[in-house]
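subagent[fold] <- orchestrator: predict structure for attached chain, return tokens only, no commentary.
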Amino acid sequence: MEHPAPRTLAEIVTDGTIACADADAAFTALIGRPGGIEFNRDGDRMEVRAARHGAPDVSTAGTVVAEIRDGRWTWRSPRAADAAARFGIPQLSGTRPATDDLLTAARTLHGCAPGLLAPMPDGTTAVVCLDPPQPMGDTRTALITATGIPIAGEDLPRALSGFAAIRGLDVRVDGPVWLFSDGAAIRVEDGRLRDIAGGLDIDPVRADALLPSIESQMYLDATFPGATAIADPVQGLITLETPTGPRMQARGVVLATVTGDTWCWGWADRNISAAPGTADCHRIRDFGRREGIPVFVSPTLPLSLARELDLVSAAKPVLGRWFHTTTQLTADTWAIVVFSDRGLVLPAPTVPVVGAVIDTIRGTDLGGIDAHRAVTAYARHRGLGILPDPGSREYMQLRTQDGTVTVHFSPDGRVMNTTVG
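subagent[fold] -> orchestrator:
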């Protein structure tokens, strides 16, 4: 795929979005939380030294590509001047109001290296693009990092092809799949990164979690009918109370908050992300980074997508907590809390219970979930025996302590019904 030349400042910004995010993540990992950064300027060159706690200082250098004074950005970069003339983009020359887009554009034009703002004694701020080589992730790591930054759906194809061009990679598009010449591959759906090859896809994770989550909620609703919940994110506690009196307090994690039509992971919500009771939620992001699952790494998502993928259930096996409830945090924000408790344990599975749980998905289009996998995962989760498979995907037999449940599948792979014996 040939990457088209940029026509606007916005397109230059888009071209460098992924590579710049990767450079930032790699540079941050290198220096950690620095004790301070020192700058020593000599003309258009800048020496940079970052002091690290308990480790040797990091010394590097860069080029001053622009200066900012009183909110005005003045270019000092020959590369920017050349790009302004070559592509007809006036914002790449002269003096302009300082914006984040100008910083990203400068970095794009200078190899997407980390960009630093260095305060100078004369009151100006020097914009420094560090020299190569700087730390960077491999293609897969960079793409995973990119899922944590907002990229408009119509800009994603350009961001991907721009990233490939910057990295010197060929890229081929086969339907929703983008194949990079170094072996990395991603799947794009509805203008979003859906899966990144090299780990688990989201759909098998959803399949494995589906029925255990359904059964857990059935049991919770039966044990605490009509319960209301109060969450304490600081202490990591959830309190359930029913209209008739039964009450329970359990350890819980704020999985996500919902404000309007936006889902925000608990690890990303600035109001609660640092609270002790939300600490475990960071495991969701770490799991998503390791497995290449973009929806676990993106801080916010449309609520409609979170519901479509049933992210509440999908996250439960990662946290090892299978019960959830919703509670109001503020006037306009709700919290989804997942929890577990020693006093809230599923009883041994029986034929009626297993049949009832599986029947909840009877005839349902599971939206990418393999029903056979979902039933198999449920059987393993509950310790059910799976009778020898005759080689047909038409049915599956599950053995409980009091009998056998046979799950029948339709030709298109849905659960058709269950029978006993």
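orchestrator: received. Logging for downstream: Residues 202-340 form one domain. The mean pLDDT is 92.
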